[in-house]
Write a structure and sequence with these properties.
326 residues; 12 strands; 18% strand; Spore Coat Polysaccharide Biosynthesis Protein SpsA, Chain A
């Protein structure tokens, strides 16, 4: 048993069925499937048991991070795949990822039945705003080059089990959203690098549980962006980068307002600021030199790919107002 697959589930039986089917077709199959149920009511855990999965009930919707951590604690395999229940993997997905030999790796995620990119890897700006590189763009050469990364989306990623022993579990206070970016920043702090392998392809339905602009999604993202600042930014950098931080946060509030979720964004910001001090007290901020190097490089990745593939309004304004980036 070399690979154990961990899948958090909260309803979405039809999505889970597609995922399990694609797991059964893998050329490098997982020896164990662990489904962590966050209180589903549509029969998803029953389906998982019928298809041979070990189901671990959480009893309530504890969020993505606690469910993933619970599943990882049950794994004994040297490789651990973490998968959203709404992905479908190409038959050679695990084979391609495992062949990289990296501490963690992820592939190219496309939208279903299309050549539109859903995501590749995560890049983070000085404002602690993450871009899932390529999201919404037509697939092309810019997203087809294997490269070293520091942050892999936990949508469909493969990890050496020892990576979790070294870096630690997901931060459960994030519940859902940006917990993978937090993990990536901890990897960067320790010099742990992963690989983006575009030859490994999967299809992701994206925000199938709540929806991309559900108020609870917006609230958690707004809160967790501030938690990223609390956990990783030394005080000196909070002051040095105060302008891009403010611009990045406020612009995203404007995007939320355009999607009629402005109140949810405000709620999240208030929660983030309220929990800032406690989050900071229980976290170790990154070395300033390492953080500057990491985020400056990542911001250049965002700027260059946005420039070559067409700017989103958010990033166009961000780079305009911050003088072109780091």
């Amino acid at each position: 048993m070399n690979i154990a697959a961990v899948v958090p589930v909260w309803n979405g039986r039809e999505h889970l069925e597609r995922l399990i089917g694609s797991l059964e077709r893998q050329t490098r199959p997982a020896g164990e499937l662990i489904v962590v149920d966050n209180g589903s009511t549509d029969g998803a855990p029953q389906l998982a048991r019928l298809r041979g999965a070990r189901v671990i009930p959480m009893g309530t919707n504890a969020g993505f991070a606690p469910a993933v951590n619970r599943g990882i604690r049950e794994c004994r395999a040297p490789w651990i795949a973490v998968l959203n229940s709404d992905v479908e993997l190409a038959p050679d997905y695990f084979e391609k990822l495992e062949a990289t030999g990296a501490p963690f790796t992820t592939g190219k995620l496309l939208q279903p039945d299309s050549t539109i990119v859903d995501g590749t890897f995560d890049a983070v700006s000085r404002a602690a705003a993450a871009w899932r590189v390529g999201s919404g763009r037509a697939d092309g050469p810019g997203f087809s080059q294997r490269q070293t990364i520091f942050s892999a989306p936990f949508t469909a990623a493969l990890f050496r089990a020892e990576t979790f022993h070294r870096v630690g579990p997901l931060e459960e206070r994030f519940e859902s959203y940006l917990e993978d970016v937090d993990f990536g920043l901890r990897c960067a702090a320790l010099g742990v690098q992963g690989v983006y392998e575009p030859a490994a392809v999967a299809w992701h339905r994206g925000s199938a549980t709540l929806g991309r602009w559900h108020p609870d999604t917006v609230r958690r993202i707004a809160r967790n962006r501030i938690f990223l600042l609390a956990r990783h930014y030394p005080s000196s950098l909070l002051m040095r980068w105060l302008w891009p931080i403010l611009i990045g946060q406020l612009l995203w509030g404007g995007v939320a307002l355009r999607h009629a979720t402005g109140f949810a964004w405000v709620h999240g910001v208030i929660q983030g600021l309220s929990g800032f001090r406690q989050m900071r007290k229980t976290s170790s901020q990154m070395d300033e030199t390492v953080l500057i190097k990491t985020l400056s490089a990542q911001e250049r990745v965002i700027r260059d790919l946005q420039r070559s593939n067409g700017y989103d309004a958010y990033w166009r304004l961000y780079f305009l107002l911050t003088g072109g980036g780091a």
